[in-house]
Write a structure and sequence with these properties.
Blueprint (H helix, E strand, L loop, with lengths): L1 E3 L6 E5 L8 E6 L6 E5 L4 E8 L2 E9 L4 E6 L7 E5 L2 E5 L5 E5 L8 E7 L5 E6 L7 E6 L5 E8 L2 E6 L5 E6 L5 E7 L5 E9 L4 E7 L5 E6 L3 E5 L5 E6 L4 E8 L2 E7 L13 E5 L14 H4 L1
Family: Belongs to the SMP-30/CGR1 family.
Pfam families: SGL (PF08450)
Cofactor: Zn(2+)
Length: 298
């Protein structure tokens, strides 16, 4: 247990995982069974576990691919997950069988990164460029597996969250502007009225989750912080962490779960690469599911 003091108030940061990961990312609260899923980008694995007495108890680990991105649950219990990986998306059954859904969305050499679902059940996922150059895209993938390019000119597609109605998308393309942006979302998924919510100073904005008040929790890589912003861009709260590189966040009710990375650190601290937890005042909801089924994508 590590007690930290952010600028607004004191909160206690707990180390939830015994394991340390190279680059843990994309934690997801599974509303079907209450469990937690997360990935390790550097090892290409999807992990699942349960929260028990303030700790994460690992239950499964599946190798998905060398360039793994974000997972999203399917709607039906036992139907598995979709996971962004390499240049497309796969379905991962609860039996750990991995099958392709979408391939070759990105240019060779680029690969999928963060993503999540909207209330309509589409899976949104963006790619990142290697080397860094604004030629990548953000896609949505329908329940039948059909992809639609929604935004071009992306460099490092990272956190995204929808408001409760699905009419606003909050989005982070980390480079070059290190900003949170917002878009209006039409019922068919078309994006419009792009605007900057705020710039994120002192580090790189990475994964993001929205809480039940519509506030945005953002992991800030290399700043050892998670920050809570209003939809208008006001910094509401900062929580200091014992890990330098937080990568992403989710809310399991009022437990803010934070994934971190040890990748690239020459002298990692004991908490680098751990999953961390902080009790906060306003809770979240489980990860929105993808509306596809194993039958429609198999």
């Amino acid at each position: 247990m590590v007690s930290m003091s952010p600028s607004s108030r004191s909160r206690t940061v707990e180390i939830l995982s015994e394991a340390r990961y190279v680059q843990a990312e994309s934690p997801r609260w599974d509303g079907r069974d209450g469990r937690l899923a997360w990935i390790d980008m550097s090892t290409g694995r999807l992990h699942r576990g349960r929260l028990d007495a303030g700790k994460i108890v690992p239950e499964s680990s599946v190798f998905i691919g060398a360039q793994i991105g974000a997972p999203a649950p399917l709607a039906q219990p036992g139907a598995g997950w979709v996971v962004a990986v390499d240049r497309g998306m796969v379905h991962v059954g609860d039996d750990h069988v991995v099958s392709a859904v979408v391939t070759d969305l990105t240019a060779p050499g680029d690969y999928m990164n963060d993503g999540g679902c909207d209330p309509a059940g589409r899976f949104w996922v963006g790619s990142q460029a290697m080397p860094r150059d604004p030629h990548c895209s953000l896609w949505s993938i329908d329940a039948d597996g059909a992809p639609t390019e929604r935004l071009g000119g992306v460099t490092v597609s990272n956190g995204l969250s929808f408001d409760s109605s699905g009419s606003t998308l909050y989005y982070i393309d980390t480079l070059p502007n290190r900003s949170i942006e917002a878009f209006d979302v039409a019922p068919d998924g078309e994006l419009s009225r792009r605007r900057t919510v705020c710039r994120v100073e002192g580090g790189n904005p990475d994964g993001m989750v929205i809480d039940q008040e519509g506030m945005l929790w953002v992991a800030v890589w290399d700043a050892a912080e998670v920050r809570r912003y209003s939809p208008e861009g006001a910094l509401v709260e900062t929580i200091r962490l014992p890990a330098t590189r937080p990568t992403a966040v989710t809310l399991v009710d009022r437990l803010l779960v934070i994934t971190t990375a040890s990748v690239g650190l020459t002298d990692p601290a004991p908490a680098d690469g751990a999953l961390l937890g902080v009790q906060v005042d306003v809770g979240g909801t489980p990860a929105l599911p993808w509306k596809g089924t194993p039958e429609t994508v198999g």
